[in-house]
Design a protein that fits this description.
Subcellular location: Cell membrane
Number of domains: 1
Order of helices and strands: HHHHHHHHHHHHHH
InterPro entries: ABC_transp_permease
CATH class: Mainly Alpha
Mean pLDDT: 88
Number of helices: 14
Low-confidence stretches: 1-20
CATH topology: ABC transporter involved in vitamin B12 uptake, BtuC
Protein name: ABC transporter permease
Oligomer: single chain
Organism: Leucobacter weissii
Number of strands: 0
Shape: globular
Helix content: over 70%
Membrane topology: Multi-pass membrane protein
CATH architecture: Orthogonal Bundle
């Protein structure tokens, strides 16, 4: 019989445990998304067609990118309460500034990403509560948006609308965008060395320092990525809306947090799943469509959506308890 050194066995056991934890993080939300989609198809078989898939999934793209933006913040152990106002400001830039002054509009977008990174640096250097800072900045983003566009209006450039609404005719573009984004971000955050550093900034900052990495730079990276994905969310939202509204994405604040948590993320920091976050966003978005198909009044949809999300979280907690019990045996 072949024997292995104790450290080899320990490494293999740890790798298996990590693989099981990663799989468990996204498995339940993925199954939940499939179940909700199956219910949609049962109620409206046309949903499974090319046109039906496009109509159901395309409006969810801005939410998916908003959830991914929130995921980067939560990976660093923080919470962002300003992502909705930020996406609203991006929408205003696309609808008002870009058509009037293309150069200024293009310049403003990376400036907003840098501003988001600077917010992360401020939180880290001054050791400020992220909830307080991001909440305060939400009023700044919203205020700038209202100054630029006091009432809903403006017009998003036609080339952006055409790009966002483009469909190749074989596979709905929404599926392609979600799949490519998920693969790229999952590889970067969960497989690359720098991705491990970014996650470590939230779960083990002292270990990151001892390894010679800068926690400040990691925080800058996480907030910059959140700002970038917020811009992408605003891009798709602008292309779909065709106009601007500073308040257009206010609901994304709580929905993005819910998407990350339902997708296996943890407020402890560093514990996030890209696949789970995308699946969580789909669960939340598809539940909204399901409730509409069932004819649930809009006044009750938020409550019904919340109950379903709580059920998913309870099931996730139960699966964690089962895994712990099995590990203790």
């Amino acid at each position: 019989m072949t024997s292995f050194p104790d450290d080899t066995v320990a490494r293999r056991s740890g790798g298996i445990a990590l693989l099981q934890q990663t799989r468990a993080a996204w498995f339940l939300p993925a199954v939940a998304a499939i179940i909700v989609f199956a219910l949609l198809v049962a109620l409206r078989p046309a949903v499974a067609s090319f046109t039906g898939l496009s109509l159901v999934l395309t409006p969810l793209l801005p939410l998916v990118f908003a959830v991914l933006a929130q995921m980067f913040i939560i990976a660093g152990g923080d919470i962002d309460l300003g992502i909705g106002s930020y996406i609203g400001l991006v929408n205003v830039v696309f609808a008002v500034v870009l058509p009037a002054n293309p150069v200024l509009g293009i310049v403003l977008l990376p400036v907003l990403v840098l501003a988001y990174a600077g917010m992360g640096a401020l939180i880290h250097l001054r050791r400020l509560p992220s909830i307080v800072v991001t909440l305060g900045m939400s009023f700044v983003w919203l205020g700038i948006g209202i100054v630029l566009l006091p009432t809903p209006g403006g017009q998003v450039p036609a080339w952006i609308v055409s790009m966002v609404r483009f469909n190749p005719g074989v596979i709905p573009m929404a599926i392609v965008v979600m799949a490519v984004t998920t693969v790229v971000v999952a590889w970067f955050l969960e497989r690359s060395k720098y991705g491990a550093v970014l996650r470590g900034a939230g779960s083990n900052p002292e270990g990151i320092r001892r390894a010679g990495w800068s926690v400040l730079r990691a925080k800058l990276g996480l907030y910059a990525l959140a700002g970038l994905f917020g811009v992408l969310s605003g891009l798709f939202l602008s292309g779909q809306a065709g106009g601007g509204d500073a308040n257009i994405a206010q609901s994304y604040v709580l929905l993005s947090i819910a998407g990350v948590i339902v997708g296996g993320g943890s407020f402890a920091g560093g514990k996030v799943s890209v696949v789970g976050a995308v699946a969580g966003a789909l669960v939340i978005g598809l539940i909204g469509s399901l409730l509409q198909f069932l004819g649930v009044p809009s006044s009750f949809q938020a409550a019904a959506q919340g109950l379903v999300l709580v059920l998913v979280l309870v099931l996730r907690a139960m699966s964690s308890w089962i895994r712990r019990d099995r590990g203790a045996l």
